[in-house]
Amino acid sequence: MRCWNSPRDRTHIELSFRPGGIMTDAIQLTIDGQEVRVAAGTTLLSAIRQAGTSIPTLCNHPYLKPVGSCRLCVVDIEGDRGLPASCTTPAVAGMVVRTQTPRVQEYRQQMLRLILKDYPGDAISAELRDLIRQVGIDSPTGEGKERVKEKLPGGPFFERDYHYCVRCGRCVRVCHEVRGAQAISFREGSGGMEIGTAFNRPLEEVNCQFCAACVDVCPTPALYDRVDPANAKYQGPTTQTSSICPYCGVGCRLTFSVRDNHIVRQEADPTGPANQGQACVKGRFGIAGFVHHPDRLNQPLIRKGQEWSAVSWSEAIDTVATAFRKYQPNEIAVIASAKCTNEDNYVLQKFARAVLGTNSVDHCARL
To answer: Does 232-291 match 2-113 at the fold level?
Structure first.
């Protein structure tokens, strides 16, 4: 990004993408007095953020298509009477956009007050707290508001408490647009539109994958992971570590919360190139169960007599290599693993055919 002063004493910003250098088919518009160049087809919200300006959003999420339903990202466009949602409005060459005019700020405050009108206020997430501060309204107190919705079964892995739902629609959209499960949707309830399953059936009966994508995009405590009571005994500081899920060969990147050398939580890493912020139920909830299982082997064992003895990797490999010499190629078979990467399995079959001289290669593709 290059910045300089234009002849009109405005800060001029040119945004370019790599690879490719300076953008082709770029357009120029003015945002809060700054001249900005963005790629054609960019939404106003993206252009505003690329220019370094913060703007409030609730229904918007990087994983989802923009819908503009929360109306918090509205802007003032010179020559327009209304206040369009910037997330669904394409940037047009020559536009003059203002993001913080008095009528924009007042409109956002009115919309957020309506969204939070029935919010109980006794549990406010960090995202919601930041949104309230950015828009500039008082936090809901929840005084005089009785619980109108009871907790619903969320299966074995997470909880559903729509008492705290603000109807942003993120969970529904990620279930439909990204996961394709369509397990939950908006439906007519006694108090208006609410989120739930068809005929209020359990998640197990509506094709829920229990991937927790809905939990990951929820901005409130309406959806949250079920906490393993066993984690309470780990009291040390929590560190975050990114690594690859070992369940299969896809290579999903996960972020692990580790306390006292024990995994207490894992979630999909948004920067993972293979999974792009998504995970299956095993990767999202099943890692700690087998990583810390008491029966898990964490070093090589060699049977000596009737006993299994722990040995070094060098001794284990030498033992296997020596045993191979006792057999002819047609007496050897190799079984690959679904938990290995595609590259590992390719090397294994190459080793079987080129080194061991056998074509008896199989693969147990069962997790």
So the answer is: no
- How many Å apart are CA 362 and CA 334, to the nearest integer? 6
Q: What is the rounded distance in angstroms from the CA atom of residue 253 to the CA atom of residue 293?
A: 22
232-291 CATH pick, 3.30.200.210, 3.40.50.10490, 3.30.530.20, 3.90.550.10: 3.30.200.210
The answer to whether the CB of 74 falls within 8 A of the CB of 51 is: no
Q: Do the Cβ atoms of 121 and 142 come closer than 8 Å?
A: yes
- Residue 91, classified by CB atoms within 10 Å of its CB into exposed (0-12), middle (13-18) or buried (19+), is buried
Distance CA 306, CA 82 (A): 82
Encoding tokens for residue 98?
């203002």
Decide if 359 contacts 345 (C-beta within 8 A): no
Spatial separation of the C-alpha atoms in residues 275 and 99, rounded to whole Å: 34
The top-level CATH class assigned to 2-113 is: alpha beta
Q: What is the pTM of this model?
A: 0.82
Report whether CATH 3.30.70.20 matches the domain 158-225: yes
DSSP 8-state symbol, 303: E
Q: Which residues contact 100 (CB under 8 A, 6 or more apart)?
A: 32
| Residues in a beta bridge with 36 | 13, 29
- Sorted by where each begins, the domain ranges of the chain are 2-113, 158-225, 232-291, 302-364
Query: Predicted confidence band at 366 (pLDDT cuts at 50, 70, 90)?
Result: low
Confidence of residue 247 (pLDDT cuts 50, 70, 90): confident
Q: Pairing state of beta strands 361-364 and 334-337? A: parallel
Q: What would the pLDDT profile of 19-56 be if each residue is shown by its tens digit?
A: 444 555 899 999 999 999 999 999 999 999 999 999 99
Instruction: Kindly give the pairing relationship between strand 158-160 and strand 223-225.
Output: antiparallel
The verdict on whether omega for the bond into residue 19 sits within 30 degrees of 0, i.e. cis, is yes
Contact predicate 140/116, CB 8 Å: yes
pLDDT in tens, 184-214: 999 887 777 899 999 889 999 999 999 999 9
